[in-house]
Amino acid sequence: MSVKAQVHSKFKLFCGPLGPNASLGKLATDVEAFATSAKAASKSIGVEYLEGTKQVVLSLGYRDDEAAYPIKLHTISLGKVESLATAELAHLEKKMEEAAAKIPHVICHELLVTESREFVIVLMTHAA
Q1: Helix or strand or coil: residue 74?
Q2: CB 111 within 8 A of CB 99
Q3: Which residues contact 9 (CB under 8 A, 6 or more apart)?
Q4: Considering the entire predicted model, what is its pTM?
């Protein structure tokens, strides 16, 4: 596959509360439903946690000029991180790799960090 297949310029924004256990809750199902109804070829996600309102803003990057496919969003807590020192980052990278290895067909990822410094990996997968 060529990198050109990842290039995209269409985006859809979603906003909602963080779900239980740092999940995306209804927000995830809204994104998945949009991708299906819009016949989107989903390419990327962006995730931002707004501490003041405890809301998540999620962007979906996609194309509508190629075959659509179903997606699923997954959240996995990587635990609380107290330091961003090199050793801690290496440990966090390992946890990210372990989390992604448990979920098949990963397309892309994003990190969500809560006000309590809990790091959560958000994975977008092909729901084949």
Answers
A1: strand
A2: no
A3: none
A4: 0.93
- Give the type of residue at 73: L
pLDDT one-digit tens code per residue, 38-58: 999 999 999 999 999 989 999
Please check whether residue 96 is in contact with residue 77, taking contact to mean a CB–CB distance below 8 angstroms: no
Tokens 């310029």 sit on residue? 9
Between β-strands 41-50 and 10-17, what pairing exists: parallel, antiparallel or unpaired?
A: unpaired
Both structure tokens of 84 = 């961003």
80: Cβ contacts below 8 Å, ≥ 6 apart: 116, 117, 118, 119
Give the residues across from 112 on adjacent strands: 120
Six token digits for residue 109: 């990822």
Q: Cβ neighbours of residue 27 under 8 Å, at least 6 residues apart?
A: 14, 15, 16, 17, 19, 56, 58
Full strand arrangement of the beta sheet holding 118-126: 71-80, 118-126, 106-113
Beta strand 71-80 pairing with 118-126: antiparallel
- CA dist 58 and 60 (Å) reads 7
